[in-house]
């Protein structure tokens, strides 16, 4: 039995089923790996990039340099940069898919529509594009422009960063030489720098990492989220059901999983057609339902209401295997990112069919490959529904006994910069006033994965959030950590009772929870827009604001590139577990002690929720004092 499972009762209940059925799962796989971990790798002083290696740094045996001559600091930062190349690549992939989908929609080649026309015209105006003609004409121009933004080189600075970055930060970035090109250019340069015998200077590699982080946010993240708003609507707060109790095994159930909402939305549209509901009923089901899992699900719950077809969000990536163990899933449709590669045996045992809807997703047990293309998404959705109906029929002959937990939690989702402004009466000034008055001490962006490294699942995330709101610190959350807070009940109005006196007063007056669900890891960029608005309104640099970032249970490469952005953006950035750089003393000094005087940001570590919250509050109070509030 695993020593680390979950803080969520529904996951623990279904983990027991996985254990009883002797099926491999993330929780059980963690313990044997913990016994054989390499200290060199954990410290970041191990390299396997060329045939001279693996090389390790160990002063006790005189191995102070790798065979090529790289030292501990260069080795650790090079590995960190390479990881961030992967993270930026996935965000950029998503951005391209979003921009292409907008164009195909404008040309009439998808089942989608241009929903937020006001945002379309405003974005085109902000970027100084021609806004004449029909919305579809403007959408084509915007999509072509944003695709070109991905490719911009250093001779032609990107327009997105000029429009959406904080006024005072842009000059800081220019002086430091980290004002970025488009993400495809930065990816090229960063990846090439990680080649053996190219760049062994940790400062140079860190500089490239900061530039990569900025290009990721402004070249990919902000654009893709704004485009998805244009396509599917800009989120506004509404109530949604979350957790594994949302399933009903008497229905044909399709779960879409990953980070992109396109197939999920197409499935919802197709499932609402009477002909598909009739197919499900003809198979013996009560009907057909669609559910979201992890980030793809979060993208949709931010924008769509719960109804008889779309039922809500299951949870984060560590919930996927327990979700299959409900026996209620007929199809798991997986797009780019965060589908564990050993789902095949679980799908077979519990009667689910695995379908890849991304050319990136491939692993044993997937029997259907319906790779997403905007012009084919209507047909892809229909094929998935047909597969799900067949899957339902095949397993409803006494083969699978459903086991669905009773747990259903209410969460208020759909917070955006626009939603916050609406709640404040159209101006950021009321938020500034309650911060000045000390009712809200400051704000923290919690943008996070989930991991078992400092687990159980979601332990640090949930408990740190409780400590922060207790200290009158407002949380804007995104990513798998956001799902953790939703499932734990921190994103509904009942959570106001857990907040400090000042924050609870503000939350009651605005009818909002103390944790605002901002969406996915991709919404790091959207969260930054709120901070940018605060900085511009106060005419100060972002580094001077009483705000911070935390990733208390980060897991993978998309989280680390978000952290590099936060450092370039000038923010106190807490990460846990410890990143694999601790064996590189000069690099650690740069990130924790020297960087504040360079970019204003710095890294903090630690997994004790109380101490981390105290340290964040101390930073926020320091910034308040410097602002004279």
From TrEMBL:
Q: Which UniProt keywords apply?
A: 4Fe-4S, Iron, Iron-sulfur, Metal-binding, Nickel, Oxidoreductase
The record's GO molecular-function terms, alphabetically, read: anaerobic carbon-monoxide dehydrogenase activity
State the needed cofactors, names only. Answer: [4Fe-4S] cluster
**Taxonomically, which superkingdom?**
Bacteria
Among Gene3D superfamilies, the record links this protein to:
1.20.1270.30, 3.40.50.2030
In short, the EC number is 1.2.7.4
Catalytic activity from the UniProt record: CO + 2 oxidized [2Fe-2S]-[ferredoxin] + H2O = 2 reduced [2Fe-2S]-[ferredoxin] + CO2 + 2 H(+)
Supply the SUPFAM superfamilies for this chain. Answer: Prismane protein-like
Q: Give the PANTHER family listed for this entry.
A: CARBON MONOXIDE DEHYDROGENASE, HYDROXYLAMINE REDUCTASE
Q: What is this protein called?
A: Carbon monoxide dehydrogenase
Species, as recorded:
Carboxydothermus ferrireducens DSM 11255
